[in-house]
Amino acid sequence: MxxxxxxxxxxxxxxxxIVEINRIFDPVVVELAAQAGFGCVWIDMEHSHLGLDxxxxxxxxxxxxxxxxxxxxxxxxxxxxxxxxxxxAGGLIWPHCKSVDEARAFVQMAKFRPxxxxxxxxxxxxxxxxxxxxxxxxxADAETILGVMIEDAEGVEEVEAIAAIxxxxxxxxxxxxxxxxxxxxxxxIPHIDHERVLAAFDRVGVACAxxxxxxxxxxxxxxxxxxxxxxxxxxxxxxxxMSALASGLRSARQATLGAKQRTLTQQLLALYHRGELDLDxxxxxxxxxxxxxxxxxxxxxxxxxxxxxxxxxxxxxxxVERMEQALVDGRRGLALTDAYYVxxxx
Length: 346
Hints:
By secondary structure, this protein is α/β, with parallel strands linked by helices. The chain folds into 2 domains: 5-233, TIM Barrel; 255-345, no CATH class. Helix content is 55%, strand content 13%. It has helices at residues 5-11, 27-35, 52-65, 78-86, 100-110, 133-143, 153-157, 159-163, 175-182, 195-211, 223-230, 241-273, 282-289, 293-312, 317-328, 332-345; strands at 16-21, 40-44, 68-72, 91-94, 145-150, 170-173, 185-186, 189-190, 214-218, 235-240. It has an 8-stranded parallel β-barrel, surrounded by 8 helices. Helix 11 links the parallel strand 9 and strand 10. Helix 13 (282-289) crosses helix 14 and helix 15 runs antiparallel to helix 16. The chain is elongated and about 85 Å long. The termini are far apart.
């Protein structure tokens, strides 16, 4: 049986970073997550088309790369709860937990006696029945992460009792659905920073701290990450497959466009320094040399302002030259800063 490093980290008070797999159900995604240094992936079966065969392949990839898995299952009957566990999932997430009775029922389905009523099978998690049954059941209960999602007003009202249940390890706040439950919106979308949502988040945090449980949520970079960590959140869903792919594609395209822009700017400046550009005829020059009209117009304005600055105060000439190099390198921020100091000097 695989040791659950993510649960061990939580029990030790550490913060864990998680990748969500929501739409791209290919084992390669698990392998890439492992290469990026993530120790656990969250596999979504609530909002996806993923079936048990696909889940099995993802879990195999995770085991091969040393990554833990938790599966957000759809609400359903007993056999829908135990099958991901018997395939080797390291944990389960129960969505929209609205009451202490619902949380207790989830634990009963997912845990062996004495905590629950789970039946004994011979799946991957038991090394296909080769483990001693008593040892297997004890280790399975100890290694499995059970989390419930607090994303409804009803769940918030019972969160202290839910957090106190033996067998629950994680309370995960779903801010968007929680905002929807409270009926708070901003510009037509759930207002996740509304005071009622933030107060609920704080209440979950207090309940988790009092019961020794971990609190989790989905976060973005920057201030969102800092804010939830400051509130004691130790389970951070920090990206998902689609956002990571989209971000990578955008970054690659921007890098390509930036390199292209620098090359064109260098070519344009080289023509200018050789005296081959007629900056009085922006449209004609752009057409003859296959540059955009805006690029030629920008250079023309730059040349005019450069001449005025140097004529008014020759000492700024080196700074003006640095502005030109910054433009070539695509560092417009530096160029604007230098331009500001040139204006002050003049």
